[in-house]
């Protein structure tokens, strides 16, 4: 069985030695240790490291990756996550191709016949604005959170300068209300796909709110098969939202 040193593994996969050492410290990699204290890795470690890098490129945190890899049905969860990622990349690729064709068509038409009517330009713009609904949901949630953070800080500064802490209390109550509304809106805009039976479902608000979760996964009980596992987040259709 071929083995690799830390430097050889780093060179083979294309990362730094420090990255390998950090993943060792976080428990993501478990190398063998020789009698002389040298760490050695196998071909399985190469595959695991490549998988870690793919999941990290999808936006998952290392703690989430470790939980998923150590879960009892890790293969099912990973298969579903990777399938969803392939679909997203294909959608992005299709959207880019469509946008490119549209831009080229507009460029050629403008060169021949001059400007389009305003309505046509609007239609073209609508066609080119083809973004993933899930990213839109996350974007709105992030923006809403940042706005509320700014309001809370402003309220705190005002209360500190004036000594009127009732204002800050009111701001915090308002912030809690908005946070609740954002959370409700978020759970209305997303669904979850079970990695065991592939059913797409909407959990009860209470179940979803208190469930353990990572970026793009949430530990839920599937209503179809009854299995509790990390389910993958997907966007609700326009009819469902």
TrEMBL record:
Entry's transmembrane regions: 141-160, 166-184
SUPFAM superfamilies on file: Putative DNA-binding domain
Tagged with keyword Cytoplasm: no
Domain HTH merR-type: start-end pairs: 3-71
Keywords: DNA-binding, Membrane, Repressor, Transcription, Transcription regulation, Transmembrane, Transmembrane helix
Cross-referenced CDD domains: HTH_TipAL-Mta (cd01106)
Pfam family, one: MerR_1
SMART domains: HTH_MERR
Gene3D superfamilies membership: 1.10.1660.10
GO MF annotation: an example: DNA binding
Keyword GTP-binding: no
Superkingdom in the source lineage: Bacteria
Name of the protein in its database record: Transcriptional regulator, MerR family
Lineage, top ranks: Bacteria, Bacillati, Bacillota, Bacilli, Lactobacillales
